[in-house]
Hints:
This protein is α+β, with helices and mostly antiparallel strands. The protein is built from 14 helices and eight strands. Helices cover 41% and strands 7% of the residues.
Amino acid sequence: MKKHFLIAVIITAVMLILFGCAAGKPDISAQTSHVENTSETETLPPPSSTAAGSESSSETTSSVPAITSENATETTESDDFYKDSVLYKPENIDRYINYKMKYPDYTYEEVITFVNIGIDMDHYSQITSITDYDNLNVLVNKYRRLPAEYKPELVKLSSFLCYSDGSGNVKEHYLREEAASAFEAMHAEAAKSNLSIVAYGTYRSYETQKTIWEYAVNSGRTIEDVDSKNARAGHSEHQTGLAIDAMINTYDVTQTGEFKWYSANAYKFGFIIRYPEGKEAITGYSYEPWHLRFVGVDIATDMHDNYSSLTYDEYYVRVIEPAL
Length: 324
Ligand SMILES: [Zn+2]
């Protein structure tokens, strides 16, 4: 380990001399800003970072020279830092090295986490087909796709759990049984505080998701804008039957007592707010205060108690995947 430490010090010193240390720790939320400016990224969503984030991004990235695979192979001494990690995936080694050189201030754990998620790649450019689609902890995102034919076993929600438009029209909603019963329990607990948490959106099939995405693109919005808000077919958590848009899918929801209540208590019933504010560059989606994902009480509680700053994408590759 002593040898590794010495090598690390030397590499760090060389990198500081070569690249300077003017670039502060880059905000992950700024990365897509940079990537978007490259030529291969027509399908990327727009950066969801703030203007300040974008500015720091261009400062950061302009001071970092392009990394080629030749450069990467010259630095194989640092392989050991990755190989010592339980998160290490041999097939990703070149990507770890390149990403670390691009963002030297990230810790090795952050580099491995982000690369294992796929954040160093354009959205939808390198896709893993999901095979554990029936697991309650399944990770679905812009790098992982559900089979088109996948449809979970679903149960119908009781109408008192469903959004009503005020004129008595109540849409039918379906979820997997585990998510449905947890949602009903959460509804009952919130009702004790005179709150009514209802479902506005639930299960959507592959075909429905495809229609929604194509309709949104054909309505004149840019693909980048659509992708920041709508999943492409096969990439929506709603296809798992484990996701619920609670109350209404606009930011008005944050003004409700129900939102404040489920923000504080949803984990006790196994739900997380899947697309948090400020994490757009990791999740690939704008903040969605209404989108709840059922992951089970154990995971939701562990995230709440021990990993509250992580998105589910990060938690999955750091905690769930190594134990698979
Ligand atoms: Zn949703």
